[in-house]
Amino acid sequence: MEKRFLIDTNILIYFLVGKIPVAEFEKITNIFQKSFNISTISKVEVLGWHKISLIEKNNIESFISTANIFYIDKIIENRAIVIKQENKINIPDALIGATALVNKMTIVTRNEDDFKKIKGLRIYNPFK
Question: If you average pLDDT over every residue of the chain, what do you get?
Answer without folding.
Answer: 96
